[in-house]
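Entry 14. Structure prediction run on the chain below.
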Amino acid sequence: MIGFIIKRLLYGALALFGVVIAVFILFNVIPVDPGRLTQGQRTDVSTVEAINKELGLDKPLYVQFAYYLNDLSPISIYTHSEKAAKKYSYSKLFGIGGDKAVVAKIPYLRTSYQSRREVKDIIMEALPKTVLLGLIAIIFSSVVGVFLGVISAVKQFTWIDNSILVTSILGISQPSYFSGIILALIFGYWLGDITGLNYTGSLYELNDYGDEELVLKNLILPALALGIRPISIFVQLTRSAVLDVLSQDYVRTAQAKGLAYPVVLFKHVLRNALNPVITAISGWFASILAGSYFIEIIFDYKGLAYVTIKALENLDFPVVMGSVLF
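Output returned:
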């Protein structure tokens, strides 16, 4: 078991390392000048050179990459200075001569080129909005999916079963961004006066007094868009699992004893049939968070995905890298 965990951790570390290399190379192929990004296009050359030197961008590419890995790594080489003391929260492991030491620290994701804020602060500010959206989407999709899957199994080979299966296949076929556009257009734009829903909007919006207020209804359409594909998967998983359990001997024995069908279904069948569905729910939560990169842009929902896409548009490398690694 310990060997398996270590192996999985190593695979995860290799995957992260590959992501770091890919994104680092990508942003160094694109002609980006962080000095110009931070100070504007009219900044004089000496100021741009000073900023690039401060960011370590005047050094060869392999040196920049080594410094970046040193910032990211939880165990790294620390050289004592006033600047380093502001960046890192660390615990010294052992010294290696002079002001240098090997330390354990929180990974440092650097600062945004655009806002000059620390990337970890930007991520932690946006992350709860995305997680809340993902949780609502997965709860909605699992409840509806299990409910429809049970009905489909109980009504096997009827028009109800066929209708649910056809609808679930259509749901799987639609990418989340397509569902998002359709939902925003119909229920947010055309029928907005009837539904009371906005076709765009974030979790917090400014009111007439300039204060931020919680707008929970802005979660409804994005959560629906994210939940459509998982619903389709959960319907088919639940249907297959329920049909399999219904054919078991202990279920037939319970029915032969005269137990009411709802009791047999909810007490004996669902208890055993939901195991594969619960496993799928945990896996789909990650997929929902990945799908939010499209949905947050469509609905102008300012979560982590929205922040990442906007940073990508502005070539703000530290924010993109930090959010992708997170």
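The longest helix spans residues 261-298.
Filed with the rest of this week's runs.
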